[in-house]
């Protein structure tokens, strides 16, 4: 069982899986390729799973891979709470330059499908969080790129509680108007 909510960004979906509970605990099927493809119309062959651990206030992103190394992702919080953010970087898209955000938690079981051509990042809202995401293409260092989180043109509401903790690399990311796709 899979519930799909279409976002205002074409091809970007919020998915919620059914949870089966009983006296032992619960069970959930976090991903089923056939159901995903039938519900979304996207054929995606995920080839790499990533997992990150972050503490409260950590902001990771906004990241993407360019060209033939672009990645579609299916993102979920398996522990804690994050604000997940995507930006449409597809130049021919009617929603080019727009962003969408969704709170992902281990309790709400929501997942965000991020199509190729989107930048992705998240901000940790809980004391600790573990985020897992599937990718349909392998990581290539030469193709990595990103957008600075506080780009005034994008005006993303990160729901910041103080100054975010960022890597040195993420602090050096370019503005949206300066990215090469």
UniProtKB/TrEMBL annotation:
Organism: Sungkyunkwania multivorans
Secretion signal span: none
Gene expressing this chain: rfbC
Keyword Metal-binding belongs to the record: no
Record pathway: Carbohydrate biosynthesis; dTDP-L-rhamnose biosynthesis
Primary enzyme class: isomerase
Source lineage: Bacteria, Pseudomonadati, Bacteroidota, Flavobacteriia, Flavobacteriales
Family: Belongs to the dTDP-4-dehydrorhamnose 3,5-epimerase family.
Pfam families noted in UniProt: dTDP_sugar_isom
Quaternary structure (record): Homodimer.
NCBIfam families the UniProt entry points to: rmlC
Keywords: Isomerase
Xref: CDD domains: cupin_RmlC
Protein's job: Catalyzes the epimerization of the C3' and C5'positions of dTDP-6-deoxy-D-xylo-4-hexulose, forming dTDP-6-deoxy-L-lyxo-4-hexulose.
Protein name: dTDP-4-dehydrorhamnose 3,5-epimerase
Catalytic activity: dTDP-4-dehydro-6-deoxy-alpha-D-glucose = dTDP-4-dehydro-beta-L-rhamnose
KW Protein biosynthesis (keyword) present: no
Coiled coil: none
GO MF assignments: dTDP-4-dehydrorhamnose 3,5-epimerase activity
EC identifiers of the protein: 5.1.3.13
């Amino acid at each position: 069982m899979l519930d799909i909510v279409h976002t205002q960004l074409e091809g970007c979906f919020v998915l919620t899986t059914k949870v089966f509970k009983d006296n032992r605990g619960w069970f959930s099927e976090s991903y089923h390729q056939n159901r995903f493809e039938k519900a979304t119309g996207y054929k995606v062959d995920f080839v790499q799973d990533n997992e990150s651990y972050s503490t409260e206030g950590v902001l990771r992103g906004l990241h993407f891979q360019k060209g033939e190394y672009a990645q579609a992702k299916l993102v979920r919080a398996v522990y804690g709470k994050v604000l997940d953010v995507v930006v449409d970087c597809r130049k021919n898209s009617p929603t080019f330059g727009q962003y969408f955000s969704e709170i992902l938690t281990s309790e709400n079981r929501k997942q965000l499908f991020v199509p190729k051509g989107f930048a992705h990042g998240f901000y940790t809202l809980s004391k600790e969080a573990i985020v897992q995401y599937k990718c349909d293409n392998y990581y290539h260092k030469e193709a990595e790129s990103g957008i600075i989180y506080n780009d005034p043109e994008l005006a993303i509401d990160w729901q910041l509680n103080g100054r975010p903790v960022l890597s040195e690399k993420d602090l050096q990311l370019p503005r949206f108007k300066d990215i090469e796709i």
